[in-house]
Structure formats: C-alpha cells, structure tokens
Amino acid sequence: MRRFRLSPWNYLWIIVGAAYFLVPLWGTAEFSLETGIGKYGFSNYATILQDPTFKTDFLLSLKIAVETVIISLILMVPTMFWIELKLPRLKPVMDFIAVLPFVVPPITLAVGILHVFNRPILSLLLADEKILALTYVVLALPFTYRSLDAGMRAIDLRTLTEAAQSVGAGWVTILIRVVIPNIRFALLSAIFLTMTLVMGEYTIASLMLFNTFPVYIQYVGATQAQPAAALSMISFGLTWLGMLGILVLGRGVGQRQTVVGGAH
Amino acid sequence: MVSVTQEARAEPLPRPTGRLLSGGLPLAWLGVVPFFLYVTLFLLLPALSLIVGAFQTESGSLTLANVNSILQPQFTDAYKTSLELSAVTALSGGILGLLVAYSVVREGAPSWLRAVFTTFSGVAANFAGIPLAFAFIATLGVTGIVTVFLRDRGIDIYSDGFTLYHFTGLAITYTYFQFPLMILIITPSLDGLRREWREAATNLGASTWQFWRMVGLPILLPALLGAMVLLFGNAFAAYATAYALVGGTLNLVPLLIGISMSSDLFANPNLGDALAAGMIVIIAVAMLFYALLMRRAARWRR
How many domains in chain A? Predict the structure, then answer.
C-alpha cells in the first residue's frame, strides 16, 4: 500500500476543517430528531410535512426556480451564441456585466428594483411572483454566464454552425439541434446552480413580501426551534443534491464547473 | 456571492478576423438587444436609482442631507461593524481555508480526500442564509451540542461571556461558508505552485520555511489577497444569516437597509438608498482591488 506523506500539521488542519463542516450538521440533525429528553424520532419532520403552508411555500419556490431557469436560458443561450459567433468584440463587455451582480448585493438589488418598479403600471409586476424570477435571473447571471461560456468554448461552435448552415439549417434549428445538445452538460450545471440559488434565497423574497421556502423556514424558526432544525436539514439536502448534480455532470465533460452560488 | 470556475481545458476559439458567416453588421447588433435591455432594466437602473436616490429628497430635489445623515455615528458605526465583520471573517475563513486546502491538495495526500473536500466545500459555501443560522443555534446556542458538551465538562461558555447572538458568534457562523469558499478559490493557485520550484529550492539548500518565505508565499500572495477580497465582499453583502441570528442586536449595514424597507423607523426613506449606495461603492472598490491583484497573480500562470 502506498504511504501518504503528510505532516501532523496537515492532519490537524484536515481534522479541524472536517469538524467545522460536520459538527453543525450533526447538531442540527440531532436537534431535528429530538422528540423529548433523550427520545428521538421523526415527529418534527412529520409536523413539517403535514403543514399545508410548507407545501404551498415549497411549491412556490420550486415554481420560481423553474421560471428563473427558463428566463435565464432563453435570455442567455441565444445571446451568448450570437456574441461568440458574430460579435466577439462584445466578449469583454459580457465578462464585465457578468461580474456586476456581485457589486450590487441582493439587499441593495431588492431596494433598487422596488424603486424602479414602484410606479404606475410597472407596479403591477411587483404583485406577481414573477418579479422574483426576473430578479433571480440577475443573481444567477454570473454563474449561468460562466457555465455556458465554458461549455461554448469547449466546442468548435463556428465549424458546427457552418456545417449546419451548409446543409440548410436556419438559426433556430442550429440553436436547438446543434448548439444546445453540444453544451448540454454546461446547460444542466447552470440549471442546477440556479435552482440551488433560488431554493435558498431569503433576502429578496422577504423584502418583496413573498412567502417562499426560505421565508417559511424563518417563519417556523421564530416560534418552533425543532421543526426549524428539520427544515434546515431539508434545505441542506437540497443544496447537497444541487452540488452533487453539478459535480457528476462536470465529470461527464472533463471540465470543472462553477460550483459556488450562494444566497447568504 | 462569488464565482469560482476553472477554465475548460479546450483552447478558446480563434477570433474571427472578418465576416465569416454573413454580412450585415448593424443587423447583428439587434441580436443582443434583448439581453442588454434586460440587464439595464433589472440591474443597471435599480443600482443607478439607489445612487440617484441617495442624493435626493423624498420629493425628488437634489440634496446632500442623506449623505450627511449616514455620516452620523449610528450609521458610521454600522459601516464600521460591517467592515470589521467582513474583514475578520475574510481572515479567519481565508487562513483556515488556505491551511485546509494546502493539507488536502499537497503531494502525498490521497486523491479521494481532495474530491471529498471539494464536494463538501461546494455544499458548505452554498449552504447559508436562514438554515445556516439555525444550524449554529443547534450547535453553539444556549442548548447547542457543543455548548452542552463543554458544559458537561465544566466549561460554561455562556457564563464566560460568549454568545452566539453577537459579533463573535456571527463571525464563527460566517466562517462556515467563508473557509469552504477559500478552499474552492485557492485550490487552482496551489495546484499552480510547481513542484520544480520546490525541488530547485531544496537543491539549493532551502529549508521548508525558507521555501515558503522566499518562493511560495511571494508567488501565492496576489492570489491569496485576491481570494480574501472576494471573501470580504461575500461577507459584506450577506443579510439572511445575520438577520436570523442577531436581528436587531448588532448594528450592520444590510440589516439597517432591511429595517429601512420594512418599517417606518426611518423618517426619511432616502436614507435607505444612501446606505445601499454606500455598500455598492465599498464593494466596487473591493472588486477593483481584486481585478488588480488577479492581473498580478496571472504573471506566474503560464
């Protein structure tokens, strides 16, 4: 067997790192399973799952997540394809725009969007949960952009497009039957990341007064600590699922994908 | 929020020199109009409206009153606390993340360890907001497992002055998503430290300490500082975790902005704009630093 050459210090830091990861999870798991002093069971999870508000709020978040993904992809895929092909000099501009959402923190973005839309006619949008999806597209922009950019650069878009054109394909056909199948892993990883982001986003949803899943977690936590721990475990599971999806897909294309979204 | 991507291995496409596919330059620009309109409406205009709002009265005339107001102690204290919290967690997360990352990726570490830590880091860096606050209440709260574990052994951290619901507790909680982010950001740079450099230094008689002091750290420094700037911005922008954990007991800028939106506590709603504009300016400066540091770091990546 091969011997691993690590110093005691390396072991120490690995253990500290692992403990930092795991202890809070262990604490939450134990707390969520506690049903009385020294007694354990799944009744906190049952309480949550039987709460009709859980179902409505979770489904609302899921709906917003799907809407965000659809708007993101419809907006980004054709634009990036077009820029790659026809307007490559816009690439630096795109790189810059893709960083901008980091400069405007979610809390300030929420305030700004409320400003812009808080006027006649436009304010109708604020009453519908689609405004959240429209805003989350901006939050997800850096990750969607990087993921799709990596996917498009990994294939020879120009040759593929020329080949498709030479057999008579139009732009829509090229996009749907040539580009999308070839960047499917990048596409899926952008989808997973966006979903993870939306399912955990609290700041904007709460300021815009929508009862999404994270808002529900906060609401439960204000009164019932143990069911809130159960919800935290469920939320952790969702994040885990999203990341695992990205990593499995990343292996499929031999490239590492964007793995950090974040909705702090 | 911060993004981490390693470039795909394939080379970028050669840049076209002429119009390869079809002509009609003005028409080609039409294709990007929807995207730019969207970004303008949902990102640029909102950000701009905050900056304009910061210099306006409620009725819309120009004023410096809001800016003067946020220079009052109540608000400068909030900025100070926010900056301190971000700096402290950028350091704690940055240093812990670096040490863990180095231990995991260095030669001699098994490759599965790296895979496990990368996966966990991806999850932990994304696991934040409200659930993270609850996870730490279950861990370091008054009846949290670590608190109880220590109490059973005669150490009562709460009677010794610790509380999860203030600066230190929040810093410990933020570190939960900060140090995994550091692992993700710094790993590619650690991979870029070439083995030959280490061997050359050793052949010339350098000790481990000398290698790090004279070769390793100077090469890594821009990347390290850059990564910490990102961590700084990440913590500075965070709202949900702080809201759930410390609520009104700690004076942080994002929390004040939240209050200005959800209640009539501030007589002047444009104060919220001024606070938000201040945040944007601070993060913009941080990102500028980041860009400069990255340019510097790129010198060694060939």
Answer: 1
